[in-house]
């Protein structure tokens, strides 16, 4: 005999998936609407004229350089931190996890203010007296690194958690030290995760605004990066230039996503 409950169940399943698709469609519509609004707000000629201005070219080059340095530093720190959190039973591990998430959880302006106050302490003044940091280019890199590293650590912690630790144990039984097992077994297997963490860290650093504004300022031709360029253009009512810079950031973000997909990695975090 045919199951009379199967048809109502399939109908309810279709309604359920339709409801889920409505949420997806609404959010995609919002994102697509924002991108379309930016793209149609101004003309290509106006965008090129805005981006030809020397201060915006300087901001673009500084953004590329600082984001790259921040991403390299973030991955350099995140690899050993993520591996240690994944493979070791640390005392107070929950507290350490919470502290590592603080740059993600705090409002960005608070991160910048905290860095600014840190360099008003005696150790901070000692560093400041020897290497100018506050309201200088190093402040941009440090502010970007502080946020980007937290995301890179999360990504690499998940990466190492997903790797089979038994291969490292086999390497130990064959005479490898923990250091050798890390370099020759775990690190090569984590290659995609490292690339993912680097791309995520670079994208986060490229778009950082709050910490950079508070800690490094937004001085033209000195500490101006693309996100602060948007703020400066808006502050003088130059909406067309602000949109041009926004489109440049959007294009950069899309390029990172395409590279990530082509490389077969995802941007977790």
In brief:
This protein has 13 helices and no strands. With 269 residues, it is mostly helical.
Would you give an account of this structure?
- The protein has 269 residues and is mostly helical.
- It is 80% helix and 0% strand.
- The chain has helices at residues 6-41, 44-51, 54-87, 93-105, 108-118, 122-130, 137-162, 166-173, 178-189, 191-207, 210-216, 226-235, 239-262.
- α3 runs parallel beside α7 and α10 (191-207) packs antiparallel against α13.
- It is globular.
- The mean pLDDT is 85.
Give me some keywords for this one:
269 residues; mainly alpha
Note the topology.
Elements: H1 6-41, H2 44-51, H3 54-87, H4 93-105, H5 108-118, H6 122-130, H7 137-162, H8 166-173, H9 178-189, H10 191-207, H11 210-216, H12 226-235, H13 239-262
Helix pairs in contact: 1-13, 2-13, 3-7, 3-10, 4-7, 5-11, 7-10, 7-11, 8-9, 10-13, 12-13
Number of helices: 13
Shape: globular
Number of strands: 0
List the helices and strands in order.
Answer: HHHHHHHHHHHHH
